[in-house]
Amino acid sequence: MAPQREWLEHDFYKDLGVASGASSEEIKKAYRKLARELHPDANPGDAAAEERFKRVSEAHSVLADPEKRKEYDETRAMFAGGRFRGGGNGFPGGFGAGNTTYTSTPGADFNIGDLFGNGGGATTDAGGGFGDLFDGLFNRGGGGRTSTTANRPRRGNDLETETTLTFADAAQGTTVPLRVTSPSPCTTCHGSGAKPGTSPRVCPSCNGSGFVSRNQGAFGFSEPCQDCQGTGSRIDDPCTDCDGSGVKVRARTINVRIPAGVEDGQRIRLAGQGEAGRRGAPSGDLYVVVHVTADKVFTRSGHDLKIQLPVSFSELVLGATVSVPTLDGSVGVKIPANTTDGRTLRVRGRGVPKRSGGAGDLLVTVKVAVPPTLDDEAVEAMRRYADAERASGFDPRAGWGR
C-alpha cells in the first residue's frame, strides 16, 4: 500500500506518546489508554478531545500494522533524515517545490539519475522529473500530468474495541450487542458530504486527479490541488450536519455474532464496521478483542473441556456411575472398579464445538476426596478394612523409594 500524503505531516509516534522504537505491545498499551481517556463517551461535547481521539485512532491503525509502520518509517526518514537535504552540490538553489528545497546529498544512497526515472538528463515534460517521485509516494498511477483518473477519498481507519464473555458463551458462541462511538457515515448526506439533493462534482482545476502540475526551470512538479484539497471533487453546497466531510461522530449499537470456540485474547474482525471513510470512501474494519472469564468447573485444552471430578475411595475401588456437568446439561460417567486416583476418563463429543462440525471431548480426571470427619461406626469399618488390606498382602509403597 502506498504511503498516505498525511504521513509527511503527522508524527504518529508523538500522537501516541511512544518512542519510534516502541514495541507492538507498547503501542497497543498506549493506544488503549488514550482511547479510554479521549473517547467521546467520556468527553461529551468536547471537540478537542474528539479530534484527538481521531488522531490517536489513525496513528494506531498505521503503527499497529507492521507493513504500514515500515512504510511510514521509510517515507518519513526519506523526507526528513538524509536522502534529500537542503544544500548545493552542483544545483544552485536546489530544485524547489513550494517552500521546500531538495538537493542530492554526497554519500547518500541515492542516484541522481533515479530522480528522473530514466537514468539520464532532466525533462521539461510535466509528467517526468521530480513529479514522478511524488507519484510513487502518493499512490498516483499516471505521472505528474493532469490525469482523468480520480484521486479516491481516503478509507476510514480501523478501530478496536473489547468485550467480556462467560466461559460457556465463549465455548458455545453467542451474540452480544456492542456500543461503539466512532466517526460514522453522515446520515443526512449518506457520506457524500454534499447537501441532500446535490452531488459533488469533478474539480475543474485538476480534472478529478487531485493534483496539479507546474514547471519550474527545467523541472516538472506535481502538488495537491488547492481548490479541492487533493480530493479530486468539489462540493458547492456542503452538508450542514457534517460540514461537507461526509463523516460524523455518533454512537451506534452493533450486534456481533461471536463464533463458538473463541479463546481469551482472540480478535474478531468485522469488515466495514470501523471508522467511516471521508466523502463516501469505504469504512475501515472493527476488531473486537474477546476476554473470557474463568469458570469454576471447566478449563480448556483446544476443543477439549477438562474437569476434575471429586470421588470417594469406595467409588474408585468398587466402581460407580457419576453425573458430570457439560456445557449443555449433564452426562453419566462410568468409573470402572479399581480406578486409580488421578486417572482421566474421556467422554467423546461433549467438548467445545468445532467450526468444521462436531465437538471436542470432555476429559474427566478423578480425584479422591477424603472426608474431614468420620463417626465411630465408619472409623471401625475403616479399621476392619485396613486389617483386611494388610492381610491380603497389599503394600501401597511396594517398589517405591529406595
TrEMBL record:
Q: Which residues bind Zn(2+) 2?
A: 203, 206, 225, 228
A single GO cellular-component term from the record reads: cytoplasm
Positions binding Zn(2+) 1 in this chain are 186, 189, 239, 242
The CR-type zinc-finger regions cover 173-251
GO molecular function terms attached to this record: ATP binding; heat shock protein binding; unfolded protein binding; zinc ion binding
**Matching InterPro entries:** DnaJ, DnaJ_C, DnaJ_domain, DnaJ_domain_CS, HSP40/DnaJ_pept-bd, HSP_DnaJ_Cys-rich_dom, HSP_DnaJ_Cys-rich_dom_sf, J_dom_sf
Q: Which domain of life is it from?
A: Bacteria
Subunit info?
Homodimer.
The name this protein goes by in its record: Chaperone protein DnaJ
Q: Which organism is it from?
A: Gordonia soli NBRC 108243
